[in-house]
């Protein structure tokens, strides 16, 4: 530790990288989880460095979401620690409002990430007891590859770091229309009058289909298995809040039964429209597999009116068509793959104690935020922004405690040396 105080800011060269000693933790990722952790550390008086591969904070929200997106959960659940959303924000803030909030958040807690630095590898060096993090820079300004050395490493690269692109027969080799992932989709404006296949019926697939229908495109949505669709609100109360309240008192199966009855009262029977429900209830499914239920914000109405067509799984694509597993063939202009995301942690973190091969922590919430040797995970609880906030508070308290103890010891040592010097003088 003493070495770190002494070496802070000093640089040396190793495998032609600039090498930087960081006094405090390195946080990888400047999304909501990384920002929340940085803010909580700032409040504890702990310095930190945030590394971000993109050229902005919250790149998922700024660069990889469609225009019409709003938070699906109420603002009181989505706000980050230490700074609530502005009072005049609506119950479900828009993308722009959420980004503005995050920008103010970063400013308020003096969070200035190192942008355009993509972490290539991170490993714990047993001999020195330090983490070594190698990055490459995509910025023409700094441009250098770096190695950061630190005592604590906070992984905040997100559950949705990379898009999932399934291999489907003929999609890349034969299909001649446009193919994009939902993270590239911005608006349905340019698809007016076009036939678009939306692959996937999670929250992204539903909302992209709704947006396409609103822009007078002709969307078909692939539902290859089953899905829980719930109303965003039930009789004026957010479904999420009702579920959380019930879960305090009742077993999961009973909460699921109540929620499904309420959902049926609001949305009706969706099976006849091709939306089959999984055997497991929505909350149990979320707890067991992490699969989020879809919160309806209008897609169900478009499905009922026939503006969004539900189709079964895909057999394969040819030049301008798709063949479905039921034998039907559709003419298509474009395909939007709303096929989800994955964590990228296994591609760069050389560790297999805290994280498993799928890039998520092995332990379940609330024990997933802390590993060994100063390693932490923020935002991998499958509990959205609320889970990220809880992780951030825990991590900052944990590091802050050690930091304060060591700072106190350091000060005491300095005082002793000072007194000795005085007595010698
Ligand atoms: C379309 C969409 C809508 C969503 N809506 C909601 C919602 O309404 N409410 C809710 O609670 N949750 C929502 N979520 C869940 C989402 O995970 C959270 O909103 C939030 O973005 C998670 O924050 P994070 O910081 O953990 O991850 P991210 O926001 O993904 O941030 C991670 C950051 O790490 C950076 N990074 C990744 N790899 C590296 C690397 N190797 N080196 C350096 N930097 C790296 C990324 O560029 C990114 O900026 C949504 C997710 C999606 C995909
Ligand atoms: N405003 C919001 O709050 C908002 C909006 C969008 C997304 N999100 C969040 O972002 C995260 C990701 O959501 P997402 O909707 O992008 O992904 P997702 O929930 O992982 O859904 C992926 C969908 O793609 C389907 N799929 C995958 N491969 C397929 C294939 N080969 N053929 C047919 N279908 C295929 C899956 O079907 P199976 O189920 O059969 O595998 C599933 O329906 C979630 O946490 C979600 O809640 C939030």
TrEMBL record:
EC number: 1.-.-.-
Pfam families according to UniProt: FMO-like
Protein's GO biological process: auxin biosynthetic process
Reaction catalyzed: indole-3-pyruvate + NADPH + O2 + H(+) = (indol-3-yl)acetate + CO2 + NADP(+) + H2O
Keywords: Auxin biosynthesis, FAD, Flavoprotein, Membrane, Monooxygenase, NADP, Oxidoreductase, Transmembrane, Transmembrane helix
Highest taxon in the source lineage: Eukaryota
Pathway of action: Plant hormone metabolism; auxin biosynthesis
Entry keyword DNA-binding: no
Names of required cofactors: FAD
Name of the top EC class for this enzyme: oxidoreductase
Molecular-function GO term, any one: indole-3-pyruvate monooxygenase activity
TM spans (from-to): 249-270
Similarity field: Belongs to the FMO family.
Record's protein name: Flavin-containing monooxygenase
Species of the source: Arabis alpina (Alpine rock-cress)
